[in-house]
Amino acid sequence: MENKGFTLVELIVTIVIFSIASVAFFSFFLFN
């Protein structure tokens, strides 16, 4: 049952990285 896709930690890390990337891209687009 361990190899059933995302674990909770992987899901949280993915969301955090996606959030940081979105904020960085928005900041770059805003200050360009």
From TrEMBL:
<protein>
    <submittedName>
        <fullName>Type II secretion system protein</fullName>
    </submittedName>
</protein>
<keyword id="KW-1133">Transmembrane helix</keyword>
<dbReference type="Pfam" id="PF07963">
    <property type="entry name" value="N_methyl"/>
</dbReference>
<dbReference type="InterPro" id="IPR012902">
    <property type="entry name" value="N_methyl_site"/>
</dbReference>
<keyword id="KW-0812">Transmembrane</keyword>
<feature type="transmembrane region" description="Helical">
    <location>
        <begin position="6"/>
        <end position="31"/>
    </location>
</feature>
<keyword id="KW-0472">Membrane</keyword>
